[in-house]
Amino acid sequence: MSNVALLTPKKDKGPVVITTTKGKENVTHCTLAMVKPAEGPVNSDFGVRRAPGKRAAEKFHKGIDIGAKRGSDVVAAASGKVVFTGKKRGYGNTVEIEHGNGVTTRYAHLDRILVSEGQSVDQATRIGLVGRSGHTTGANLHFELIALGKPINPIPQEGWVDESAAGLHRL
Predict the structure, then answer these.
(1) How confident is the model over 86-109, as pLDDT tens digits?
(2) Quick one: three-class SS letters along the chain?
(3) How many Å apart are CA 123 and CA 163, to the nearest integer?
(4) Prediction pTM value
(5) What mean pLDDT, rounded, does the chain reach?
């Protein structure tokens, strides 16, 4: 039997749903309202995939890859505080944004980083430019959603927030 616990940043809507089975916690999904961080198709899904490169072994892909033109905008999927900017092995130029309640988003393979650590950003604020830094086969945005230290599928079950309907514009 599973028990469901909800971490609540608001009265009755929490961003992270956790199930507990036999004493082991598992993050099942996140209800953080997010805009799509870059324009383009999802070229590589979350989960097990054939890793790019010469030794094409199966490997767990912790995020999604959004195919986009090099130099195009990358925006914050949700409001938060920038907690990391810089290079990470495999990821290249990377930005990490903390959204509270144990939820972080990661944006990688950037050509340029346009924000600084400690900076607060609103949803849809430009944070970088799509690139091909790190281990990648072409220009794309690698996007991850991390809840309580665990990667979860970043494609929202409820769908991406429609920026124009929400009154948002890219800054």
Answers:
(1) 999 989 999 999 998 888 999 999
(2) CEEEEEECCCCCCCCEEEEEECCEEEEEEECCCCCCCCCCCEEECCEEEECCCCCCCEEEECCEEEECCCCCEEECCCCEEEEEEEEECCCEEEEEEEEECCEEEEEEEEEEECCCCCCEECCCCEEEEEECCCCCCCCEEEEEEEECCEEECCCCCCCCCCCCCCCCCCC
(3) 9
(4) 0.77
(5) 77
